[in-house]
Design a protein that fits this description.
The chain contains four helices and two strands, in the order ββαααα. It has 100 residues and is mainly α. The chain has a two-stranded antiparallel ribbon with strand order 1-2. It is globular. The protein starts with 6 loop residues before the first strand and ends in a 6-residue tail after the last helix.
Length: 100
């Protein structure tokens, strides 16, 4: 994870980067935990080995994880700020990427 610069994923030697979302950051506590929790949630939910993911599927995973991490920074404290799935999906649909 790269904070406001998004993240870099490496799967099977393929390196993929993804930007984060342009949200009003208040507190970064828990953003990384939220990012990794969202990543693990997707891997478990999809019931598919990450080495079998296509580039498009990796990008989708990155967007979801970055949205979760981004949204966690919009409130104080890690637990209170942890977003629910629908809020993550709304962020992906409605919030532009942060360009640094």
């Amino acid at each position: 994870t790269l904070g406001p610069k998004g993240c870099i994923f490496c799967v099977n030697g393929r390196i993929t980067a993804g930007p984060t979302f342009d949200v009003k950051t208040i507190d970064t506590t828990g953003a990384g935990d939220s990012f990794w929790g969202a990543t693990l949630y997707q891997l478990i939910s999809n019931n598919k080995d990450i080495t079998a993911y296509s580039d498009e599927e990796i990008q989708k995973l990155i967007r979801f994880s970055n949205a979760a991490g981004s949204l966690t920074t919009t409130d104080i404290g890690a637990i209170n700020a942890m977003p629910e799935k629908q809020r993550i999906l709304d962020c992906i649909e409605n919030v532009p990427y942060l360009h640094i």
